[in-house]
Each structure stands twice: as structure tokens, then as C-alpha cells.
Design a protein that fits this description.
826 residues; alpha+beta; Agglutinin, subunit A; 5 domains; globular; binds 2-acetamido-2-deoxy-beta-D-glucopyranose
Length: 826
């Protein structure tokens, strides 16, 4: 055999000039389509095949295209080529003479049927007489099937875009490989609800691994499978209540995210990608990265699509289980005193494969468990609003909660300035940990890893429990008694907790009802009937905001009002209370005033000041865009700044708005701007930031720290910066249109800033902006100053006001590299 291949090798190189001929003939014999009752067997009849320099080979059954990279459906194998994958791959049919020589031409597998169960020689692929596509191993056992028999199938065809279809005589789809993605997406392919891209278990093993990407509320989400799964990336946002992503489509130039109520063809959000001149594919790889590859004479890596926060250490498998990642370097956990006996590397020569506990954790010996404290260590999944993390808890309670639960493997505690109120996460499996950098993440974090004290050693004082000789009767007796007492105590505790919780809930209910009557006297309470007639039975709709719809109305005294009718959801109620309390107590010329409210049965309404000119977006993006001159735009920016400054710094309680966008800025008859819709407002006690557990706000305006959980009013400063750029440039930051050269305004601004050509971006509709070029540029620079990733570098709103007034001549130190690069959050 070895001799034969040597001879073959010699033969091949000696007469390689003939190979093109053979290959060309071979390709010309391949069709993109097959009829019913077609059988292919992997054995000599399938030869000639194509073997590549790395030893991999393909056996094309169908090929679409005859020049350059082309899609093919067939068998694929890697050395030693005794196991085969029925798959769709891209092969270069062009430079046939080079195919056996050039490694940049390696076939790229983009879909496969049997990744978890490869087939051997003599396996058959059959497009049966009744329309089923079946893969059988040599022994005749079906390994995989499309299950399409009896649906009237007629042809099997591979399309130009790489989609393998089973069609009926009317060319209707019965089955499509695009609906069964494996680890890759092709141009035009969508990842729909319920679909997953699952990575290989390793670079050389096609078996599905633990990492997967799926489409969830708000966008793309990447998980490591565990029970329950742990989220490590999400570009989503939960803009309540109705944004729920349903599919993500890979298009030329962008990965588009569509929600339930998207206009057809217009994505709600997208991730910009380099556009393609030829073939491209996205592949979800075994390290958890989603990578874009493109063809330009050979395959090239183009972009890593998932931007995890804060850096690559936030990939769940980067340092294996229990490994701690710091600047890409892995290490095993050690006690503060340097004791490294609790964890050992899985492979001392490859620390990135992770670490294991020296003594397995045993639920039976729960008493000899203790927690190894690692300060300044965090975990990747904090951004998951759905994880059952416990909020508003102190370190000690978090640790105790882990010690009490057998399946908990660590207590991960994350907190803001006040360590007695943090969030606590108790995972049942530990993937890579990371060294925390509070200067970047804006939170503090500690990890307490559960370890088992070896039974033979006396347990250290931390896990103190009565000394006992293992195996001795008295020890067992004590254990049994201990367990019994433990159970009884736990039972009592549970009853106590339940009783308390009930009482508390009841208390809260009463309190809530009372609150409705205690709203500050300046705010009037209206009956539902009054408002119904004021709005002529909710006839004229002004807009749709977070949690409700806004209608125009007129009170009996002739005053025009805007009535916001809240959707009746549990959340809406909380929100309603927040709105009444917040808006009711805040009065400022640049903030929309609350006149009154109504609460009756399920009806919850807010009565707001009516602002005649509507919201800012219609004036800067809509058809009316030409109407606003530079002075007006400048005043609007100044008004927004004053409104926000008041919210942040001047009113009794610090208030972060958290959903600043042009839709929430209203203009009165004189084009004075008023910040409205405190629907998402979250009160922040002075000198204390708030740990948010849910993402809120609107894509395009979200500050990058939404990923980190710690949100301060500086998130508004960021959104303000976005709005200012939009007002000056007359376009949205996030333009969901493929015609746009660059999807993100901020990315463009970043480019132009480097080239010192910011004026290129001025709104062409604004006739006199050129005449005020210096002012406009200065305002843009101020906006850029507000957009820095590091929220602590952003100015406060009062500083912004001073700069706009001209009463402060702050030197802003702007560096375009400090801005968020093109990414999902822009
Ligand atoms: C499939 O059948 C059609 C006629 O029904 C025939 O024209 C065509 O050549 C067949 N294709 C193959 C690949 O045999
Ligand atoms: C490819 O085909 C040649 C004969 O054309 C055969 O000798 C070789 O073993 C085949 N390669 C594989 C991987 O089956
Ligand atoms: C494949 O089939 C051929 C006959 O067609 C037979 O000689 C060979 O042993 C078979 N190989 C395997 C692995 O079943
Ligand atoms: C076909 O049906 C079998 C048995 O019901 C199932 O295991 C398999 O996943 C199905 N195949 C596909 C591609 O859905
Ligand atoms: C591939 O990975 C799976 C699961 O991780 C494992 O069971 C299998 O043995 C691996 N196969 C090879 C060839 O290494
Ligand atoms: C939210 O979605 C429901 C359907 O799921 C729809 O009836 C309702 O009108 C939507 N609300 C808003 C505010 O869009
Ligand atoms: C992708 O879009 C660019 C322009 O944005 C265009 O030049 C290119 O031809 C397109 N590629 C394909 C494959 O359509
Ligand atoms: C998955 O494994 C196959 C076979 O080894 C390989 O061709 C492919 O490139 C791998 N995919 C990834 C994403 O690593
Ligand atoms: C392989 O292809 C690349 C890209 O076209 C080319 O630069 C390189 O010279 C080729 N290598 C060989 C050995 O032909
Ligand atoms: C920290 O939070 C706790 C509970 O929320 C509170 O009792 C305590 O006063 C706070 N400490 C500081 C310094 O704010
Ligand atoms: C124990 O922790 C696991 C996850 O770590 C969780 O799913 C389970 O609900 C917890 N059990 C109790 C009783 O809290
Ligand atoms: C946390 O770790 C970072 C480096 O990752 C270090 O710069 C910082 O000083 C540490 N902070 C504390 C409180 O130990």
C-alpha cells in the first residue's frame, strides 16, 4: 500500500501536466442536480477524487459552477481518510492544476449531514425512488436521512448559494440544507428561531461540541452547554416589551437581525461585516469565535464577529475548565497564601486545557468542603439576564448559598461600590475564569471555588467541623444525626422563608395600592372616563413608546394633553409607579411635565404635557429634515444637555434616563427641546451606581458598559453623544440598510476624525451648517468626547452644558481609538 502510494506520488509529480485534463473531465461530468433513484457509493467507482496537500480529500457528487470556488455536495475526509462526512463544501474548480498542490485551496466544509457519526468505505448516499435522501453505512444501516419520503419529491439540487434542496415537480421546496445549519452560515442564509450553529468539539473532530449560537430575544446569543446553559455573548437588548428577534440573516456586508415586528427587509439591528466580492462564509469555531472567511484567490480570514467583553479572556473555553485567563495567559487557581494544592492542570504542558480539582467534590462529604477565595477574578456570563443570579445580596450570603447547594461549584460575586449589595451567581459547572480589571469593567468581582478537603487531612479551620476518623462507627453515627438535624433545620428554615416571603408579598401589595393615592399633590388623579372622553375614546395616536401608546387629548378646561396608555403587563405596572413617582417630582423647562395619572382596575394612564412639534427624529431623519437650521439644531442640543444635567445632578434624587434617543426628545412650538419618556428611568441614589440586571434602551444608543452590568448616568452621556452626532449629520447612527457604505455613523466619525475631515459628515440638508463650520465641528468633538468606551472619561452633563454655554473652555482630549469600534453596540 505504502509502495503503491509512493509510486503514485512519483507518477503524479512526473506527469502532473496531465492532471488538469483528468480533473477537468471529471468536473465536466458532475451535475448540480440529481434525479430520483440515484445511488453513490464511496469506493473505487467514485474515483477519481481530489486529494489535497494536507491529506484531506473530497468526492464531489454534485457540483454547481465550473470556474473558481464552487459549491459541491459530496463526501469529505481528513487523513487517514477512512471515515467520511457527507457534506457541502466549497472547492476551487478553476486552477485545476494547482488543486493538488496549493494549500490555500483547501475545500471548506460549510454543512454536513453526519458530523456525529462518520461513515466508512462502501457507505452509500441514496436519493431514493420515494424522494428520501439517505446515508447508509456499509452494513446498510441508515445513519442519516432527510425523512422526506412520500412528499412527492422529484429532484435533488444544489443552488448557486450552496443550499441543497429537495424539490417537487413544481419546484417547491420540500427540504433545504439552509434550514438545518451545522456550524456555518452562507451568504443569504438565515439562522431562525430554534436553529443552532454548533461548533466542532475540536479543530480536528467534527463531533458537535459544547458551544452553540442561537437566536434569542433581542439577537444573537452564544452559549456553552451545561445545565443550565451559560451565556457568554449576546448582542441583544430587551427593549420591552415587543422586541424579540426571530431571525438573523447573513448578507453581503452585514449580519442582519430581524425582530418580530420588523418592517419586511429592514433589520432592527445589524453587525457590519466587510462586503464580499466573491464567496464568503461564517463559521462558528471550536474556540467560541464566529469567524468570517472570504475568497480572494485563496481563503482568507476576514473578521471575528463576536466581540466579547472585555477581551478574549471572556470566551468560556479559552483556558479550559477552572483556568484563569489574564491577557490570554492561563493559570490554575491558587489560594491567597500561594497554596496551589487544590487545583492541578489537566496537562502541565498545555495549561490552556484547563485545571481540575485535586480531590473530586463529593456531595456525601459536604462538610469537608470549603470555598477557595479568589479576589479580583470574574466570570464571563454575568451579562445573562436569565441566569438565576441572586441580586442585592452580600458576599457572605452568596458563599453560604453555594455551600448549601450540592450542585453549586462556585459562588461568583460581582458588586459595585458597595460590597454588601452585589449579584451572586452559582453555576454547576465552571468554565474559564478571568482576572477582573475594575478600571475597564467598572465592577468588582470575587470568585469562591468549591473545593473538597481530602478526608485524610484534618480539615482546615475554615471548614471547621468536629474531628472524626473516617470509617469509624461513631463518625458515621454523627454524620447520620448531623444529616437528620440538618434536614429538620433546613425544613424549618424553608418554612420560615416561605412565610416571610408571603408576608412580604402581601405587604408590598398593600403598599403599592397606597402609593397610588400618595402621589405628590401637584399631580392630579383622573378617572378613566375623564381621560376616555378627553382623548375622544383614544382616537388620535401620537406615538408608541416603551410600555405604551400615546394619544392626543384635550381636558375640559381646554388644555391639550398627551395621554400615555400603558400596556397591561406586570412590568408595566412597576414602570407605571416609577414613572408617576419620577416624573411627578421633576420639573424643568427641558423635561416633559407630568400633569396627572389614572389608575383604575387594569387601566394605567399618564397625563403629560402636550408638545406640539412632535419628536426630534421626524425633524432630523424624516422628510421635514430640511426645516432645521444650524441655530435651531444647536439650541436643541443645548436643551437636551440642560434637561439631562438637571436629571443627573440637580434634582433631589439622581435620575438616569437610560433611553435617550431622538424619539424621546420632543419639540415645542418654538423648537425648544424637552426630554420625555422616563419610562425606562431608573433612579440612582447619589454617589452610588446601580447594578442593572437587564439590558434596557434602544440599539444604536446603548453605551458599551451595558455589557458589564454596572450602569451609571454616564450611559446617558454616551447616548447624548450619539444624538448630537445624529442631529449634526442628519442620519441615524444605526442605519438598517444595505445601501449604506458604512452602517454605523460612529464608525464613520472615527474614520473622518483620523483624517481630520469631520465636516464631510455634516447634514447636507442643513443649508447654513457650512457657514458655522467651526461651531459645528466643536460640537461634534464634544459629542465624540461623550462617546468614549471608558465611561469615567466621559464628561458629566453639567460639564457639557458649561462647554456649550462657552463658560468653560475644557480641553478635550479625544483619541479616536478610545471609541467603540464597529460592533454590535454601536
Ligand atoms: C433527470 O431526468 C431528466 C428527465 O426527466 C433528464 O433530462 C436528465 O438528464 C436527468 N438527469 C440526470 C442527472 O440523470
Ligand atoms: C483517490 O482516487 C485514487 C484513484 O484515482 C485512489 O488511488 C485514492 O486512494 C483515492 N483517494 C482516497 C482518499 O480515496
Ligand atoms: C467494499 O466493497 C468492496 C467490493 O465492492 C469489498 O471488496 C471491500 O472489502 C468493501 N470494503 C469494506 C470496508 O467493506
Ligand atoms: C429523521 O427521522 C429520524 C427518526 O425519526 C430522526 O432521528 C432524524 O433526526 C430525522 N432526520 C432529520 C434530518 O430530521
Ligand atoms: C471527537 O469528540 C467526541 C466527543 O468529544 C469523542 O467522543 C470522540 O472520540 C472524538 N473523536 C476523535 C476521532 O477524536
Ligand atoms: C406587542 O405584541 C403583541 C403581540 O404579541 C401585540 O398585540 C401588541 O400590540 C404589541 N405591543 C406593542 C406596544 O407593539
Ligand atoms: C457585495 O456588495 C458590494 C458593495 O457593497 C459589491 O461591490 C459586491 O459585488 C457585492 N458582492 C456580491 C457577491 O454580491
Ligand atoms: C470541523 O471539523 C472538520 C473536520 O475535521 C474540519 O474540516 C472543519 O474545519 C472543522 N470546523 C471548525 C469550525 O473547526
Ligand atoms: C497558492 O495560492 C496562493 C494564492 O493564490 C499563491 O500566492 C501561492 O503562490 C500558491 N502556492 C503555490 C505553491 O502555488
Ligand atoms: C451598602 O448597602 C447596604 C444594603 O443595601 C446598606 O445597608 C449600606 O448602608 C450600604 N453602605 C454604603 C457605604 O453605602
Ligand atoms: C442548586 O444549584 C443549581 C445550579 O447550580 C440550581 O439549578 C438548583 O436550583 C439549586 N438548588 C437549590 C435547591 O437551590
Ligand atoms: C485586579 O487585577 C488587575 C489586573 O488584572 C490589577 O491591575 C488590579 O490592581 C487588581 N485589583 C485589586 C483590587 O486587586
Amino acid at each position: 500500500m505504502a509502495g503503491a502510494s509512493l509510486v503514485l506520488l512519483f507518477f503524479t509529480s512526473a506527469i502532473s501536466i496531465f492532471l488538469p485534463l483528468i480533473s477537468a473531465q471529471f468536473f465536466s461530468h458532475r451535475e448540480p442536480t440529481a434525479n430520483l433513484s440515484t445511488v453513490w457509493t464511496i469506493n473505487p467507482p467514485l474515483s477519481p477524487n481530489l486529494t489535497y496537500p494536507d491529506g484531506s480529500a473530497v468526492f464531489p457528487l454534485l457540483i454547481r459552477g465550473s470556474s473558481g470556488p464552487s459549491f459541491s455536495f459530496g463526501f469529505y475526509c481528513t487523513p487517514p481518510c477512512n471515515a467520511f462526512l457527507l457534506s457541502i463544501f466549497i472547492v476551487n474548480t478553476n486552477r485545476l492544476s494547482e488543486i493538488t498542490l496549493n494549500s490555500s485551496d483547501l475545500p471548506q466544509v460549510v454543512w454536513s449531514a453526519n458530523r456525529n457519526l462518520l461513515v466508512g468505505l462502501n457507505a452509500t448516499a441514496l436519493f431514493s425512488a420515494n424522494g428520501d435522501l439517505i446515508l447508509r453505512d456499509a452494513n446498510g444501516i441508515a445513519v442519516w436521512s432527510t425523512n422526506t419520503s412520500g412528499h412527492g419529491a422529484d429532484t435533488l439540487t444544489l443552488t448557486d448559494s450552496g443550499n441543497l434542496l429537495i424539490l417537487d415537480p413544481d419546484r417547491r421546496n420540500i427540504w433545504a440544507s439552509f434550514d438545518h445549519p451545522t456550524d456555518s452560515l452562507l451568504l443569504g442564509q438565515s439562522l431562525k428561531e430554534g436553529h443552532r450553529l454548533t461548533a466542532n468539539s475540536s479543530a480536528t473532530n467534527t463531533t458537535s461540541g459544547q458551544l452553540y449560537i442561537t437566536v434569542l430575544d433581542g439577537g444573537l446569543a452564544a452559549f456553552v452547554d451545561s445545565s443550565p446553559p451559560q451565556l457568554y455573548f449576546s448582542n441583544g437588548f430587551t427593549n420591552p416589551p415587543n422586541i424579540s428577534a426571530v431571525f438573523v440573516t447573513f448578507n453581503n456586508g452585514s449580519l442582519d437581525i430581524f425582530a418580530l415586528f420588523s418592517q419586511p427587509g429592514v433589520p432592527d439591528m445589524y453587525i457590519a461585516l466587510p462586503s464580499s466580492s466573491s464567496h464568503q462564509y461564517l463559521r462558528f469555531e471550536d474556540d467560541g469565535h464566529l469567524k468570517l472567511y472570504g475568497w480572494s484567490g485563496g481563503w482568507k480570514f476576514l473578521k471575528d464577529v463576536l466581540d466579547v467583553f472585555p477581551d478574549d479572556c471572556a470566551y468560556p473555553t479559552v483556558c479550559g475548565q477552572y483556568g484563569i485567563c489574564l491577557n490570554g495567559q492561563c493559570s490554575c487557581p491558587q489560594a491567597a497564601n500561594g497554596d496551589s494544592s487544590f487545583f492541578k492542570p489537566v496537562n502541565p504542558l498545555q495549561i490552556n486545557l484547563g485545571c481540575r480539582v485535586s480531590t473530586p467534590i463529593s456531595c456525601e462529604a459536604a462538610k469537608s468542603q470549603q470555598l477557595l477565595a479568589l479576589t479580583n477574578v470574574s466570570y464571563f456570563n454575568y451579562l445573562d439576564p436569565s441566569t438565576a443570579s441572586i441580586e442585592d445580596i452580600d458576599t457572605e450570603s452568596c458563599k453560604q448559598a453555594c455551600l448549601r447547594n450540592c450542585s453549586c461549584k462556585a459562588a461568583l460575586f460581582q458588586y459595585g461600590p458597595n460590597a454588601s449589595s452585589g449579584s451572586c451567581y452559582l453555576p454547576s459547572q465552571i468554565f474559564s475564569l478571568m482576572s477582573n480589571r475594575p478600571d475597564i469593567t467598572h465592577y468588582n468581582s470575587s470568585a469562591f471555588l468549591k473545593v473538597q478537603t481530602p478526608i485524610s487531612n484534618p480539615p482546615p479551620p475554615l471548614g471547621a467541623f468536629p474531628e472524626a476518623t473516617p470509617g469509624s462507627r461513631s463518625w458515621r453515627k454523627k454524620l447520620v444525626i448531623g444529616l437528620l438535624v440538618g434536614f429538620i433545620l433546613a425544613g424549618l428554615l424553608l418554612m420560615f422563608i416561605i412565610l416571610c416571603a408571603r408576608r412580604r408579598r402581601r405587604g408590598e401589595k398593600l403598599e403599592e395600592e397606597d402609593k397610588f393615592d400618595e402621589v405628590p399633590g401637584m399631580v392630579c388623579r383622573y378617572s378613566y372616563e375623564e381621560l376616555k372622553s378627553a382623548t375622544k375614546n383614544f382616537e388620535e395616536k401620537l406615538g408608541q413608546g416603551g410600555f405604551g401608546t400615546v394619544f392626543k387629548g384635550t381636558l375640559s378646561n381646554g388644555v391639550d394633553i398627551a395621554v400615555k396608555r400603558l400596556d397591561d403587563t406586570g412590568e408595566g405596572k412597576e414602570q407605571f409607579l416609577a414613572e408617576v413617582e419620577t416624573i411627578g417630582s421633576v420639573h424643568h423647562i427641558n423635561l416633559v411635565s407630568l400633569i396627572g395619572f389614572c389608575v383604575e382596575k387594569s387601566h394605567k394612564l399618564l397625563v403629560l404635557e402636550y408638545i406640539p412639534n412632535g419628536s426630534l427624529d421626524t425633524w432630523i431623519f424624516g422628510e421635514k429634515a430640511t426645516a432645521l437650521d444650524w441655530k435651531t439644531r444647536q439650541n436643541i442640543i443645548f436643551d437636551i444637555a440642560k434637561g439631562l444635567s438637571y436629571l443627573h445632578e440637580e434634582c433631589r434624587q439622581k435620575i438616569a434616563h437610560l433611553d435617550i434617543k431622538p424619539q424621546n426628545i420632543l419639540l415645542d412650538q418654538n423648537f425648544n427641546a424637552k426630554v420625555g419618556d422616563f419610562g425606562l428611568a431608573k433612579l440612582i441614589d447619589r454617589d452610588q451606581s446601580e447594578i442593572m440586571t437587564r439590558m434596557r434602551g434602544t440599539p444604536g444608543y446603548l453605551a458599551p458598559e451595558w455589557l458589564t452590568s454596572i450602569i451609571t448616568e454616564k450611559a446617558d452621556v454616551y447616548s447624548f453623544g450619539v444624538v448630537v452626532l445624529e442631529v449634526i449629520c442628519g442620519r441615524k447612527n444605526l442605519v438598517p440598510s444595505q445601501l449604506e457604505e458604512a452602517g454605523y455613523l460612529i464608525a464613520l466619525v472615527q474614520e473622518k476624525l483620523k483624517d481630520n475631515l469631520l465636516e464631510d459628515l455634516f447634514d447636507k440638508h442643513c443649508g447654513d451648517m457650512e457657514a458655522h463650520k467651526e461651531e459645528a465641528l466643536e460640537t461634534m468633538r464634544l459629542a465624540i468626547w461623550c462617546l468614549q468606551i471608558d465611561s469615567s472619561r466621559r464628561p458629566s452633563m453639567s460639564t457639557v452644558v458649561k462647554v456649550l454655554e462657552g463658560s468653560s473652555d475644557v480641553h478635550f482630549d479625544i483619541d479616536s481609538d478610545l471609541l467603540v469600534g464597529s460592533g454590535p453596540f454601536m
